[in-house]
Specification:
The structure is a homodimer. Chain A has 13 helices and 20 strands. Chain A is of the alpha/beta class. Chain A folds into two domains: 173 residues, Carbamate kinase (3-Layer(aba) Sandwich), CATH 3.40.1160; 145 residues, VC0802-like, CATH 3.30.2130.10. In chain A, the strands form four sheets. In chain A, strands 3-6-2-1-9-13-14-12 form an eight-stranded mixed sheet, sandwiched between helices. The first copy, chain A, is globular and about 75 Å long. At the A-B interface, helix 1, helix 2, helix 3, helix 4 and strand 3 of A face helix 1, helix 2, helix 3, helix 4 and strand 3 of B.
């Protein structure tokens, strides 16, 4: 067998010396199958959180360029340590920073986007028989500054490298054994999905499934990179993310996802004049705030302002308020925030051809006594914003109502090879 | 006032958030005097030791290239954090890695030497009104790998940058208030020296004075960089290191220095044939072991091998033994090591024109009952290897015998300006 594989190990998979050595053995095992191996590593365990707390001790709102310089060190440490472990196993490894690996990004610090991958140095090292370790989550900007790709950016690094070097597969090793029909911490009998389509995975990542970072799935879809999401602690096959044409069936509902990190911003007295919504959206976009759902009510009477609500990740709430304040003051808009919101979503490619799913979702949540605050839909997803403390209950109710763990819909766990054939 | 200054802060001066902020205020104060400021920072407190212990958990003898990738992260963290603090003080700072700062080194990992400083990016940032923070201790090799300059390398970074940008002074901020006539932890009434010559400082650094790294003093002498070594915790003037022509007097003895980190290697049965010593020295040099004193005894009888002893830093002992083993086996040489040796030295530029110092050193140590194991001298230094546990006693005896704290030789502490005039 020959070919090229990218293996990505998350923070929990390299959290201590023993785990780094275990990752090293897994990498070496792939190499010994005859594959060319590039491994992308995250920072060890809680390193990134620790670095962030250091910055917060210094400054309430640290300079983003300097934040990137600080945060990028964690992955470099993991890679250097893993390279040492691989060398001790009798193979030749070389660790590269994002910059050395040719990950060129824009200059949007802490949330940079990859513009180009100049993988020459990786290719040379592979041709030289080396195992290449690349620090995830980071790159170098067109202004030659160190950038980071945002939380979970190591997945994107791995997928981008897989595309650049034309790898056969991008394996994402993590502390869960694959993608589940719901978070097993909330739904103990959630089942592992052997295969999901890019489209479903995109919706699931966007609506709270933490296992794969949204941008990495987008990148994989756009570049046709096959992702295999699996456990770093056992050899069982995980979940393969592939194009829709490859999946064998489109279940009505594939999974229930959720998020508890939502904040809702409500603007009251928004002038009912053309362009106001656009100006509001522009200041938020310029501040790099990810606005998710937006709901606007008609003004109750002629001349009265409208109410507008939207959700943002809770971490972006401060930025959002700061960005909105000058414009709100100018236009006489009231700004209110609710930090404790959650979101529950059902995702399934079969939904496209099957009406009535939304009605069922609303009924199930209503029967469970859970108030739906906001709703948004896509062709293969229905999301409801609910009070944060009601999220686990909502997930369990929907998972059960759509029989995702029931005998009618369960597909028996099979070895991956069989299933894929 | 205008001009350029390089300020270097050691690990204890940036050990926590408060100290980083204090360093930031000192840097800003310099800038507000109208100076262009480049600051070189070490890793926070025990960071480097912690990183080394991480590597040791992974591998008994970590790959040097990967060690450099790992160790270089500590200084980047300090610089990014300090830049955040400076930005919060209303100034514009930019942190640069050794590579970004243009520190080009050879490829000798963990002990790289600076080949060239391409300071364009620093100059541009200074011209733009910024305070520039540079990660000490590191550079980029001609093979485009991250390198480190060895322990204490941040001093060398600072001096090299001062030379490259033609700074008026290189200030080394540390946890001691200057260079002392002996280690105040051993000799409580040791006095601070307002001024020492490069030559004296070189001998002092080489013989154990930890305050300045040897290579940084060499670099400063070769490039005429004025060093001011001072405390980061108060504003008192420290010790200025200048050319010999600038110093006002040459005291007989300036200081007593010591080292407890010595190991002695004794080779027995060394064949008395030409070239053997050269071959031994070559394998040690190739392994990058710093051999200090060398003593060789004549063979006791025709055909018998000679004995040869030399000292190395204790940390290099393993490397030295590994390097010597094949040659020793080939030539039938016995290799013995003694890890617990120390060294005590007296340094003084006046010694050059004043015989009898060596005799006095030997007499003083003899009267104190301290056995001298090996001796080496330079025109301005006499060093004796003694048992490691006798070092403090030897230092106190010599400091007292040469009256370095006594009323006859003490120079009253004066404000630096007065003294320099």
């Amino acid at each position: 067998m020959s070919g090229t594989v990218v293996m990505k190990f998350g923070g929990t998979s390299v959290a201590d010396a023993e785990r780094i050595k275990r990752a090293a053995r897994r990498i070496v095992a792939k190499r010994e199958e005859g594959l060319r191996v590039v491994a992308v590593l995250s920072a060890r365990g809680k390193t990134t959180d620790e670095l962030i707390s250091w910055a917060q001790e210094i400054s309430p709102h640290p300079d983003p360029r300097e934040m990137d310089m600080l945060l990028s060190t964690g992955e470099r440490q993991s890679c250097a340590l893993c390279a040492m472990a691989i060398n001790d196993l009798g193979h030749r490894a070389i660790s590269l920073t994002g910059s050395q690996a040719g990950i060129v990004t824009d200059t949007s610090h802490t949330k940079a986007r990859i513009l180009e991958v100049r993988a020459d140095r990786i290719r040379e090292a592979l041709d030289d028989g080396r195992i290449v370790l690349v620090a995830g989550f980071q790159g170098v900007s067109t202004a030659k500054d160190v950038t980071t790709l945002g939380r979970g950016g190591s997945d994107t690094t791995a997928v981008a490298l897989a595309a650049a070097i034309d790898a056969d597969e991008c394996e994402i090793y993590t502390d869960v054994s694959g993608v589940f029909s719901a978070d097993p911490r909330i739904v103990p009998d959630a089942r592992k999905l052997p295969m999901v389509s890019f489209e479903e995975m995109l919706e699931m990542s966007a609506s709270g499934a933490g296992v794969l970072q949204l941008r990495s799935v987008e990148y994989a879809r756009n570049h046709g990179v096959r992702i295999h999401c699996r456990s770093s602690f056992d050899d069982a096959p995980g979940t393969v993310v592939v194009g829709e044409d490859v999946t064998v069936e489109n279940p009505l509902i594939t999974a229930v996802t959720h998020s508890t990190g939502e904040a809702r911003v409500t603007l009251t007295g928004v002038p009912d004049t053309p362009g106001v919504a656009g100006r509001l959206a522009t200041v938020l976009a310029e501040a790099n705030v990810n606005v998710d759902m937006i709901v606007q009510n008609e003004p109750v009477s002629e001349g009265a302002g409208a109410d507008m609500s939207f959700t943002v990740p809770r971490d972006d709430l401060h930025t959002a308020r700061t960005a909105l304040e000058p414009l709100a003051a100018e236009l006489g808009i009231g700004v209110h925030a609710d930090e404790s919101m959650g979101k529950v979503s059902v995702v399934g490619a079969g939904m496209k051809t099957h009406p009535g799913v939304a009605a069922k979702v609303f009924t199930v949540l209503g029967e469970a006594g859970i108030n739906i605050e906001m709703i948004s839909t896509s062709p293969i997803r229905i999301s409801c914003v609910v009070p944060g403390d009601k999220v686990p209950e909502a997930v369990r109710a929907l998972h059960s109502a759509f029989e995702l763990s029931g005998p009618d819909t369960i597909r028996p766990e099979q070895p991956f090879g069989e299933f894929a054939s």
